[in-house]
Amino acid sequence: MRQTYRTESTVIPTDSRRPSLRPADARRAVCGAVARQAVPCAAEALNDALLVTSELTTNAILHGGGITGFEVDVEGCTVRVSVSDRSDAVPVVESAPDGRDRGRPGGRGWPIVCRLARDVEVAGLPRGGKRITAVVPLGRAG
Prior knowledge:
By secondary structure, this protein is of the alpha+beta class.
């Protein structure tokens, strides 16, 4: 028998009157949403979801002109994190032409998101900008 436990979606509004959401705020929202669910998750999996959240919010701040929306939703053993920003540009993996980019700062966040998330979707928004949604499996605490 399959049981689904769903929390209410957590939306943190962002607007011009309020400073932009910080990655730490987003991580707290994810922790809170996961804590409210009825199925315990593996600590390692929660850490993956928090890292994905940090990367998405940090990238929106650094490359997307700031965070314009954030939402976290927990259903069963998955967490869905959506981050919107002002940029229409789709994230890309950047590497040095010779492949020796280990000394270069940055450029590792998007590959981390793609590796840890089960699904990643980039969608344009009607009034410009984009929303990136990542679904991270939480597993079960054993």
